Amino acid sequence: MSSRNVKIGLLSASVVFAALTGLVRGANPEKDSPVMLPGCIQFDLNSKEGRTYRIFVREPMAPVPEAGSPVVYLTDGNKDIIPMVAAANRQRSLANAVIVAIGYPELPREGFYRQRTRDLLFPVDPGWWESIPPQHRTYIGQEAGGAAAFQAFISDTLKPEIERRYKIDPDRQMLFGYSLGGLFVLHTFFERPDLFTMYFAGSPSIWVNDRSILKEISPFAEKINKDKASGGGEFPSLYVSVGEQEAAGFTNDSDREEMLKARRQVDNVRELADILSRNIPFLNVTTEIFAGEDHGTALLPACNRAMRVLAESGIQSEN
């Protein structure tokens, strides 16, 4: 069952997460009406394992071309649907695009993070969670290892359902994720590069599990180089962004400085790009460091950049 015009529930963008997960109500719930997100619908969809996902979709707002609509699938849909729709709405050429945000039914905050971590993380070392400072554990959650099942849900259940509802351009499909979602994008890029034509990892949490994601590059490079040597054609593009102030040296908070030094967000992105360029020189990899942005604010320019990339892919496909 779907409902037209997604209900946001609050006026303040700073509490979007709370609004979409049902944590905060208006001062006068019997009189107040929720804010609507025009042009969007939502529906629930079950995975083969019986897990329920809430899918938020911005439908095409202009005639769909013969090739079909460009599409972006994004994780953390409960909160990131809003900045992504806002970014797409600023790109006139994306009026016919479809935005698919993968979220969860209304949950307590802890439940949301527990499911998020389960879906976005690959199997990790048993002691990994205990290595995280206690003050940061609440928004990460302890369960991990469900990334393969989440990938299968996207490829085998969600994409067919979206393609049943809308005509989608097979050459203009993007996967977007931010933070742990960005790590999931990298993992999917290395494990399932055939699923999308463009991958956008915003401020990916490369530090997770002692940077084990970097170990996935070698088998990926071997496969891609073999495909290239045997005459393989198109390869997906990878875009990675990070905020300049996700590095240490921009805050007077000593605890945060220690965390930033340990996580090495900016250095990790640079190292990732360097390894890929050395091992797969023909691969289209783009990195961008957003000046003046930290991990809390770099999401917005990442959404804007992702929609620019999606829009420009249309220009390239015409040439």
Q: What topology emerges from the helices and strands here?
A:
Layout: E1 2-7, H1 16-20, E2 36-46, E3 52-58, E4 69-74, H2 77-89, E5 98-103, H3 109-120, H4 134-137, H5 147-165, E6 168-178, H6 180-191, E7 198-202, H7 208-211, H8 217-229, E8 237-243, H9 254-263, H10 265-279, E9 285-290, H11 299-318
Parallel strand pairs: 4-5, 4-6, 6-7, 7-8, 8-9
Antiparallel strand pairs: 1-2, 2-3, 3-5
Helix pairs in contact: 2-11
Descriptive account of the structure:
This protein is of the alpha/beta class. The protein has helices spanning 16-20, 77-89, 109-120, 134-137, 147-165, 180-191, 208-211, 217-229, 254-263, 265-279, 299-318, and strands at 2-7, 36-46, 52-58, 69-74, 98-103, 168-178, 198-202, 237-243, 285-290. A nine-stranded mixed β-sheet has the order 1-2-3-5-4-6-7-8-9, with helices on both faces. Helix 2 packs across helix 11 (299-318). The N and C termini lie far apart (40 Å).
Key attributes of the depicted protein:
319 residues; alpha/beta; nine-stranded mixed sheet; 11 helices; 40% helix
Quickly describe the structure.
The chain is 40% helix and 20% strand. With 319 residues, it is an alpha/beta fold. Residues 8-24 have low confidence and may be disordered.
Mean pLDDT across all amino acids:
88
Based on CA inertia axes, which overall geometry fits?
Answer: globular
Q: Strand sequence of the main sheet, in spatial order? A: 1-2-3-5-4-6-7-8-9
Write the H/E string, N to C: EHEEEHEHHHEHEHHEHHEH
Q: Unreliable segments (pLDDT under 50, ≥5 consecutive)?
A: 8-24
Number of helices: 11
Biggest β-sheet, characterized? 9 strands, mixed
Portion in strands: 15-25%
| Number of E strands | 9
**Gap between N and C termini:** 40 Å
Structural class computed from helices and strand pairing:
alpha/beta
- Cα gyration radius (Å): 19 Å
Helix content, binned percent: 25-40%
